[in-house]
Amino acid sequence: MTERTSWSELRDELGVDRAHPSYDAARIAFELGVEVRTLREERGWSQTELATRAGMTQSAMARFEAGGTVPTLPVLERIAGALGMRLAVELRPAS
């Protein structure tokens, strides 16, 4: 199993510009991917098993877990359902 890198470590390694318009999308995609991977591993499932349950390909799931794609809400709904979860989107005050 590969060791995960935190968003801040990955950001610094890649030299990501925090002012760039795509910064927040990349951060969110990375964090979602980490969360889904954690939930999948807790269940003892392979990427293929989760992908099949979510109606996706294994390669699409791998890209998602790596933070390589910004998913649509319908895709997030399918992944959440496959994990036996409910997707919840919330707006919170900025800190």
Within the CATH hierarchy, at the fold level, what is the topology?
Answer: 434 Repressor (Amino-terminal Domain)
Percent of residues in beta strands: under 5%
Span between N and C termini? 35 Å
Identify the CATH homologous superfamily.
lambda repressor-like DNA-binding domains
The total of beta strands comes to: 0
Which labels suit this protein?
434 Repressor (Amino-terminal Domain), 95 residues, 5 helices, mainly alpha, 0% strand
Summarize the structure in words:
The termini are far apart. Helices cover 57% and strands 0% of the residues. It has 95 residues and is mainly α.
Brief description of this entry?
The protein is mainly alpha-helical and 95 residues long. 57% of the residues lie in helices and 0% in strands. The N and C termini lie far apart (35 Å).
Can you lay out the helices and strands and say which pair or pack?
Elements: H1 7-14, H2 23-42, H3 47-54, H4 58-65, H5 73-82
